[in-house]
Amino acid sequence: MTDRKNAYGYDDLILSGTGELFGKGYAQLPxxxxxxxxxxxxxxxxGGAYGKGLVRAELDVxxxxxxxxxxxxxxxxxxxxxxxxxxxxxxxxxLCWDGSPGKGRALGCGEVKFSGQITNDVKIVEYGxxxxxxxxxxxxxxxxxxxxxxxxQIIYEMSGLRVGLFT
Length: 167
What we know:
Elements: H1 10-17, E1 39-44, E2 54-60, H2 66-70, H3 80-97, E3 103-108, E4 111-114, E5 124-136, E6 140-150, E7 153-166
Antiparallel strand pairs: 1-2, 2-5, 3-7, 4-7, 5-6, 6-7
C-alpha cells in the first residue's frame, strides 16, 4: 500500500478511481462525473468531533457541472443525494487510507437534514466527516457523522453514516 498522506489532490483521487492509489484489493473512489470532490484537504486518525478521525474535502463548483443541466431544468441545483454520496465516498476512502482492503459499499445513514442547497452560483462546496467508530473484523465498518457547506454555510447534516468494506 502507498504511504499515507494527510491530503490528496485531484490526480490522487483519479488514481484511487482506477485502483492505483492504494493498490489491488482496496476500495476505489468513483470516477468522474460521480466523483463528488476535487481534493481531500485533510485526513487524520485523530481529531474531529469525537477525537477518532476526520476527513475534509472540497468541490470547486463550475456552473457547467452535469447535474445542473438536468436536475430541475431552468432551476439549476445539485441533487441533495449527491452531497450524501460525497460523504459516503469520503468514509470509504478513509477506511482504505486506514489500511483496510475490500470493496466499499454505503450501508446507510441514520438521519439527514437539508437546510440549504447548492446552486450554480455557489463557488465552493466543503464536505466533512467525523469518525465515530471503525470496526475491523470479518466486515470492516466505518461509522461517522457528516456535513456539507456551500460557500462556508452548513446546508446538510448527516448522522450515523455507515460504509462497509467487503472482500
